[in-house]
Amino acid sequence: MPQQIMVATRHKALFAGVVPDEQDLEATAMRINPCRIIGDWGIEKDVNILAVTGPPAESQITVPADMVVQGVIAVWILTPAAWQAWRDGTWDNA
Predict the structure, then answer these.
(1) CATH number for the domain running over 3-93
(2) Which residues share a beta bridge with 3?
(3) Mean of the per-residue pLDDT values for the chain?
């Protein structure tokens, strides 16, 4: 079963999306599809909250795309609520 994850890269970018169940979560490059990038998540300073409850409503989140994300330094498994918030977010929220 596919996994919904959030990853941070060495370039300080945050991505969220779906990887196959067999994806090595310790890999430094991952194909994520669909994948979204968060550009701004408001005043929230705790990155972990983005994986637990999801981005706040005012966040700026890109449309989904099929991406290979490189330079992965951290991986979070998203809760169902967090994944729904990532999916509901848009760049126009700010």
Answers:
(1) 2.30.30
(2) 19
(3) 92
